Amino acid sequence: MVQSYALLVVGFVLLVFGGDYLIKGGSRLSALLGVSPLLIGLGIAAFGTSAPEAAVSIKAAISGHSAVSIGNILGSNIANIGLAIGLALLVFGIKETHRQIWKESVFGLLATLLLLTLSVAAFSRYGDYGLNTVGGFILLFFFAGYLYYLFRMSVSDKKKSRDEEQEVIENRPLEYVKSSAMTIGGIAGVIFGGSFVVDNAVAIAQSWGVSETLISVTIVALGTSLPEIVVSVMAVRKNHWDMALGNILGSNLFNILFVLGTTATIKPMEFSAFHSMVLPDLLIALGITLLLFFIVIQKKRSGSALWKSRMQGLVLLLTYAAYMVFAIIRK
């Protein structure tokens, strides 16, 4: 048991230092590539920190546990917004956001609606709620469209930052290596750190006699979201709000479009407890994404005072707390 406590500490250390290196490396890469920190958050950081969700969900679905797979994705997406963004808003506040960030929040809404539509369409055609191979390919098709959008965004950003790009061109080869190493090392740190924290927190909780139900809806549910939470809070602490929001929204899109799309094409997913388990989580994920959309739109139009921003963070946190209570009661 002493080993579990030691590894738990190691996990938190890896999370903190990994998040710090990821933000430093990502911000330097954005300057070198001539793109905004938002794009780094939407792409590299989001896809990298979503690795735990991808591994857990694909493994669960292939093993015949589709409910675990979809539950992990939706629970993670809810935690990403309610806990990560809510905590960052409450502690640090935000006055304004990147001009493009509202589009990503719209994409998040559309992706969740698409998942709901495909699940219901499968029932109307085959008599079972779920995601079949066709549904998986549809999700992957939209993911390809999202990648194309990121590519177009990067081209646009480069055109706008040619002057700044010239300032670092002399050190570019070495800077590319250093920044890429920091970014990749940071991603590895938050992934392994999150794994250490979850595994050993579960072992410690079990030794205290905590029920498996409570563990599953708290520690395990939060575990796969730890990388996104840590990276987002660290980004905000360094005043990189665009990277934090990009990381969360990009991660949520990656979870639905790529992870579930890939999973369904490998093995069709049947949601056996759709009305009692999947549908409520889908609606909550849709609602909390809509709430974030309104927050982003408000800041895009007029900005807001820090106290108002912190109140919005509190609302997101309370929404997530209510979801956790609901999940425990439902279990």
Give an overview of the whole structure.
The protein is mostly helical and 331 residues long. It has one domain (2-330): A middle domain of Talin 1 (Up-down Bundle), CATH 1.20.1420.30. 86% of the residues lie in helices and 1% in strands. It has 13 helices and two strands. The protein has a two-stranded antiparallel sheet. Helix 1 runs antiparallel to helix 8. The chain is globular. The two termini are 28 Å apart. Mean pLDDT is 77; it is low at 163-170.
And the CATH topology? A middle domain of Talin 1
Low-confidence stretches: 163-170
CATH superfamily: NCX, central ion-binding region
User: How are helices and strands ordered from N to C?
Assistant: HHHHHEHHHHHHEHH
Please write out the topology.
Layout: H1 2-33, H2 37-49, H3 51-62, H4 66-92, H5 101-126, E1 130-131, H6 133-160, H7 162-167, H8 172-207, H9 212-223, H10 226-237, H11 241-266, E2 269-270, H12 274-302, H13 306-330
Antiparallel strand pairs: 1-2
